[in-house]
Structure formats: structure tokens, C-alpha cells
Design a protein that fits this description.
Number of strands: 6
Distance between the termini: 53 Å
Number of helices: 8
Order of helices and strands: EHHEHEHHHEHEEH
CATH architecture: 3-Layer(aba) Sandwich
Strand order of the largest sheet: 3-2-4-1-5-6
Shape: globular
Number of domains: 1
CATH superfamily: Phosphoglycerate mutase-like
Oligomer: single chain
CATH class: Alpha Beta
């Protein structure tokens, strides 16, 4: 039986991640740690014998920078497609705000609902806000009227699944070796679909920075298995770090 592999990679730590801020569509750079995480991911993929025919990436520069570092480490020069459908979840009026301060102001339960639930949207961003758009919409094929003011994870899945059906799955069926550079919530939305995770249980899923997640499918793109390229100990520590963001230290 032929096995088709797909690699998903969340970008390395960004400067907003480092500062414990909601990022969303705010277009920020990787931190020094994030660049190192991307470099290690590229070296690890090369060591494990991975190669790729096609890279797919969001339009946000922290994912683009991760892509550039990984492909450079692997010595690959392959086609790249960018899509806003792979973007991080739009965190609305929370973008740029400190997660712990939000938890202290509104309560940890409310903060976690905004951050981790499936269907709850955060407060909407005002169109006059400086974070309304931080990159060229025209270059990304997105009209300003379609720019979200806030998104739930459900909203992310709604805009992501057409991309899976029209772009990602056909590439895999054509036997292309694909790597996707995305974000914590766009990956959570896709993993929810691929693993058939319930609306309730998805709140417990944390995607670590810079850690390759491998999916293996049969020729009909039915999942066989998935796994991270990390030891159980490393993975547990990285997931715990993500889960702890925004918690109130007591």
C-alpha cells in the first residue's frame, strides 16, 4: 500500500509569542528563539530523510520566515504557494494585548474561552484600529470587505477546509510531497478535521512551535497515523508551554 506523507509546521516563536501577546493577523517577526527553532526543524527534517515538492504557507511573515529558514537548511528550492486561508485565527480586539492581563481583567475562564474554545469569538476589532490590516490585502488576493474583525476556531475551519479540498488534498493525490507552514490555530482547525476531534475536546489541543507534525495517508487520503518529530518528553514540555500561556500565576 502506498503511503503519502504530509508535514505540518507551526512557525517558530514570534516576538509577540515571546511577549505573551495575542497575535492573530498582526504581522510580526520571529524572535531569535523562533529563528533557531525553524533552523532546528529544517535540520531535523533533513536528518529524517524528508524532501518536498511543494510548500504551502500563510501570508504572515512569521510563517514565511520559518519557511525560508527551513528550506534553506534543507537545501531545497521548490514551488511555494501562499494563502490567507492558512493564516492564524483573527483575534479581533485582543490582538496585541497581553494574555495574562486579559485573564486578570476578565477572568481565566473567559480568556480560555476566547483562546481555546471552538465556537466563541473574541470581541471584534474596530476598523479604525491600527491592527485592522498590517499587510497588503491586494497582494494576498483578499478584498477588504472580506477581512475578518474576529474569528472563532470554527470560523478558521470554515475558511480553511475549502483550501484543503481544492489545493492540499489534490496535491497529495497527485503524489506531491507537501509541507505546510502555518499557525497554532490554523493547524488546530486542520488537525480537528483530520483527526475528527470533537468541539469540546479541541480546547485541549496545543500545537508547539517549530515541531514538525507528520501525517501519513493512504492513496485515498485516508489517515493512517500521525506523529510529531520529537520525543515524548520534548513534546510534553513544548505543549505544556503553550497551554500555560495566559494562565494567572498563583
Amino acid at each position: 500500500m502506498k503511503t503519502i506523507k504530509l508535514v505540518l509546521l507551526r512557525h517558530g516563536e514570534s516576538v509577540y509569542n515571546k511577549a505573551n501577546r495575542f497575535t492573530g493577523w498582526t504581522d510580526v517577526d520571529l524572535s531569535a528563539r523562533g529563528r533557531e527553532e525553524a533552523k532546528k526543524a529544517g535540520l531535523l527534517l533533513q536528518k529524517e530523510g524528508f524532501t518536498f515538492d511543494q510548500a504551502l504557507c500563510s501570508v504572515l511573515k512569521r510563517a514565511i520566515e520559518t519557511l525560508e529558514i527551513v528550506l534553506r537548511q534543507m537545501g531545497l528550492n521548490i514551488p511555494i504557494k501562499h494563502s490567507w486561508r492558512l493564516n492564524e485565527r483573527h483575534y479581533g480586539a485582543l490582538q496585541g494585548l497581553n494574555k495574562t492581563e486579559i485573564a486578570e481583567k476578565y477572568g481565566e475562564k473567559q480568556m480560555l474561552a476566547w483562546r481555546r474554545s471552538y465556537a466563541v469569538r473574541p470581541p471584534e476589532l474596530k476598523k479604525a484600529d491600527e491592527n485592522y490590516s498590517t499587510f497588503s490585502l491586494e497582494e494576498q488576493g483578499l478584498e477588504k470587505k472580506d477581512l475578518p474583525l474576529a474569528e472563532s476556531l470554527k470560523d478558521v475551519q470554515v475558511r480553511l477546509l475549502p483550501y484543503w479540498n481544492k489545493t492540499i488534498a489534490p496535491l497529495l493525490k497527485a503524489d506531491k510531497k507537501v509541507i505546510i507552514f502555518a499557525h497554532g490555530n490554523s493547524m488546530r482547525a486542520l488537525v480537528k478535521y483530520l483527526d475528527n476531534i470533537s468541539d469540546k475536546d479541541i480546547s485541549n489541543l496545543n500545537i508547539p512551535y517549530g515541531t514538525p507534525l507528520v501525517y501519513e495517508f493512504d492513496e485515498n487520503i485516508k489517515k493512517i497515523k500521525s506523529y510529531y518529530l520529537a520525543s515524548d518528553k520534548e513534546l510534553a514540555a513544548r505543549e505544556a508551554e503553550i497551554a500555560q500561556q495566559g494562565r494567572i500565576n498563583k
